[in-house]
Amino acid sequence: SGDILVGRKGVATFTQSGGTIDASSMVAGNMAGGDGTINISGGSNVVSGTITLGRVIGSKGTLLMSGGSMTAAALKVGSGDGANGSEGVFTLSGKDTYLKADTLSLGDAGMDVASTLRIEDGEFQIQSIVADGNSANESFFLEGGVLKLRHVSSPNIVNDIDALITAGVFTWTNASPDSLAATHSPSTATRTWTNAAGVKLYADESGTNYSYIWAATPPEKSLKLFMISSSN
Predict the structure, then answer these.
(1) Residue partners of 136: CB distance under 8 A and separation at least 6
(2) Is the Cβ–Cβ distance between 192 and 184 less than 8 Å?
(3) How far apart are CA 36 and CA 30, in angstroms?
(4) What does residue 168 show for φ and ψ, rounded to 5 degrees?
(5) Cα–Cα distance between 118 and 110 in angstroms, integer?
(6) For range 20-42, the mean pLDDT
């Protein structure tokens, strides 16, 4: 029920493939020189406070989730706590992987903070996004799974995604997951964006409690070829 520090001042790796963690906070890369990596491929975790990846200048924190589930009050991917500069990396993969955080923080206004967040598969649920919109140092990339956004305020949190897209922070590729096929499709989308590659990002804001964000390449038109044969 206490704090978990991975890479307090040096290099450390924490690996979990099952069981349960109940902690007040988790930090990967806690102090200058700290380089911490948290690998989760199974288990069920609850963090009552904040998960911080790279807390202060000269630190780096990485969270790799390829299985299991975790809930937290907040996820800070790169933080400016105490001084300028840190690096945070978060990757979510695995079909059944789930992470829920009330608040997602990318970067830190006025701080030299690098944030990289990549959703490859699974489900990532958040209620609010805090970002300084610095596309040079922040990256939020959706290439699989679903981004699930809770309706908690007006304007809708999808507006935060819209702002990150405008700032060049949020990018995407073809990411349509099988789990959305039945209930969420291009026809149910209430908002769309198209990137330079022609891949559309869809937002379905019609849900009672959640908005769903996913991307998919429009289906190619079928081409039928008919061969007419004749005989002399």
Answers:
(1) none
(2) no
(3) 8
(4) 80, 15
(5) 23
(6) 95
Backbone angles phi, psi at 215, to 5 degrees: -130, 150
pLDDT tens across 68-107, in order?
999 999 999 987 655 556 899 999 998 889 999 999 988 7
User: In 137-150, which positions are buried (b, 16+ CB within 10 angstroms) versus exposed (e)?
Assistant: bbbbbbbbbbbbbb
**Nearest alpha-carbon partner for 147 in 188, 104, 105, 182:** 104
Could you identify the residue written with the tokens 């959703």? 119
pLDDT score of 24 more than 90 = yes
Residue type, 189: A
Q: How far is Cα 120 from Cα 107, in angstroms, rounded to an integer?
A: 21
What is the number of residues in the chain? 232
If we measure between CA atoms, which residue out of 58, 86, 97, 76 comes closest to residue 177? 97
Paired tokens of 193: 């964006």
Amino acid at 161: I
- Average pLDDT of the residues of the chain: 84
CB 43 within 8 A of CB 65: no
